[in-house]
């Protein structure tokens, strides 16, 4: 079995009528001012190709590592159902990332890596303090500045009489 494609996105959708697959919001770089963070929804798409004389059902393992820490590992089954290719989608609702260190998503058979996808994870920008309303203090300060009022001229207008 060969791995043809492996990607990580916010959403992977398969159209029921046409069987076409769409990946929305490719995730290849994650930045946050602080950690840990929670990614609300993550989908992984793997496309496999069955080699001649291989069985219809084959087991593989999906592994997600952050540095030396394996944060997810599950053995799954590929069922080709008489076809030469298989699309496999795995979805996570609420994916925690503990630290600013890259993620390595890999597909393995036994200990052999068929392919992997790397997601960069970085700490970006400073954490901006917030006011009691939850606004960053720079925005709160801007919203508290009173708008300038135009000054009316105190001169009385002289009306000309006919």
Topology:
Layout: E1 2-14, E2 21-26, E3 29-32, E4 37-49, E5 57-66, E6 69-79, E7 85-97, E8 103-109, E9 112-123, H1 137-144
Parallel strand pairs: 3-9
Antiparallel strand pairs: 1-2, 1-4, 4-7, 5-6, 5-8, 8-9
Short description, anyone?
The chain is mainly β and 162 residues long. The protein is 5% helix and 55% strand.
Description:
There is one protein chain. By secondary structure, the chain is mostly beta strands. It has one helix at residues 137-144, and strands at residues 2-14, 21-26, 29-32, 37-49, 57-66, 69-79, 85-97, 103-109, 112-123. It has a 5-stranded mixed beta sheet, with no helix packed on it. The mean pLDDT is 87.
State the main characteristics.
about 160 residues; mainly beta; Immunoglobulin-like; 5-stranded mixed sheet; elongated
User: What is the typical, i.e. mean, pLDDT?
Assistant: 87
As a whole number of angstroms, the C-alpha radius of gyration is 28 Å
CATH architecture: Sandwich
- Number of E strands: 9
Per the CATH scheme, the topology name is: Immunoglobulin-like
Could you say which structural class the secondary elements and strand pairing correspond to? Answer: mainly beta
Q: Tally the helices: what do you get?
A: 1
- Enumerate the spans where pLDDT stays under 50 for 5 or more consecutive residues: none
Report the β-strand fraction as a percent range: over 45%
Shape from CA axes? elongated
Euclidean distance between termini CA atoms: 101 Å
CATH class: Mainly Beta
Proportion of helical residues: under 10%
What about the largest sheet?
Answer: 5 strands, mixed
Q: Topology as H/E string?
A: EEEEEEEEEH
In spatial order, strands of the major sheet run 3-9-8-5-6
């Amino acid at each position: 079995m060969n791995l043809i494609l492996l990607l990580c996105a916010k959403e992977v959708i398969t159209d029921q009528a046409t069987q076409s697959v769409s990946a929305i919001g490719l995730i290849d770089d994650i930045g946050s001012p602080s950690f840990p963070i929670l990614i609300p929804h993550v989908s992984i798409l793997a496309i496999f190709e069955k080699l001649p004389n291989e069985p219809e059902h084959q087991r593989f393992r999906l592994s997600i590592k952050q540095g030396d820490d394996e944060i997810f590992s599950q053995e799954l089954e590929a069922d080709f159902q008489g076809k030469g290719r298989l699309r496999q989608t795995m979805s996570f609702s609420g994916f925690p990332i503990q630290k600013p260190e890259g993620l390595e998503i890999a597909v393995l058979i036994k200990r052999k890596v068929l392919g992997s996808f790397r997601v960069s994870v970085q700490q970006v920008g400073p954490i901006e303090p917030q006011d009691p309303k939850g606004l960053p203090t720079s925005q709160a300060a801007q919203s508290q500045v009173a708008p300038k009022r135009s000054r009316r001229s105190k001169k009385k207008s002289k009306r000309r009489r006919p």
